[in-house]
Amino acid sequence: MAGNETVLKPKTVTKPKLEKPKLYKVILLNDDYTPREFVTVVLKAVFRMSEEAGRRVMMTAHKMGSAVVVVCTRDIAETKAKEATDLAKEAGYPLMFTTEPEE
Ligand code: TYC
Q1: How far apart are the C-alpha atoms of 52 and 21, rounded to whole Å?
Q2: Of 37, 49, 92, 102, which cross-links 53 as Cys (Cβ 3.0–4.6 Å)?
Q3: In angstroms, rounded to a whole number, what is the distance separating the alpha carbons of residues 103 and 94?
Q4: Which InterPro entries does this entry report, sorted A to Z (predicted)?
Q5: Residue in 74, 79, 100, 87 with CA at minimum distance from that of residue 40
Q6: What are 37-74's pLDDT values in tens digits?
Q7: According to the model, what pLDDT value does residue 1 have?
């Protein structure tokens, strides 16, 4: 080698800052009108839950007033909550899904 290679040294070193995305909970709210079976059907259809998991979450909301369905990114949480709430609305039920940031 001729010994005349240029070595470029970066003047500033940028540390990659990857913010981990904030997570959001989708929350199922109890009400007095939506049939239990319908709640389970929505949980299975929108959140891909098994019959057993769907019933468990539905019964938790029924007894406690609300239940966490899933924790995911804000975008997905809001889309799923709307999809599920809209499905119920179309069927004439007041069933509601909300979202909130995880602590
Ligand atoms: N409480 C409703 C009933 O007795 C059933 C129900 C369960 C509704 C969970 C909403 O998130 C809910 N028919």
Answers
A1: 30
A2: 49
A3: 28
A4: ClpS, ClpS_core, Ribosomal_bL12_C/ClpS-like
A5: 87
A6: 999 999 999 999 999 999 999 999 999 999 999 999 99
A7: 47
Most ligand 1 atoms within 8 A of CB, residue of 33, 36, 87 to mutate: 36
Q: What gap in Å lies between CA 62 and CA 67, rounded to an integer?
A: 9
Amino acid present at 100: E
What confidence score (pLDDT) does residue 5 get? 67
Q: How far is CA 49 from CA 29, 69, 88, in A?
A: 17, 9, 17
Q: What is the pTM of this model?
A: 0.84
Q: What is the pLDDT of residue 9?
A: 63
User: How many angstroms separate the CA atoms of 40 and 48, rounded?
Assistant: 11
CA–CA gap between residue 103 and residue 99 (Å, rounded): 13
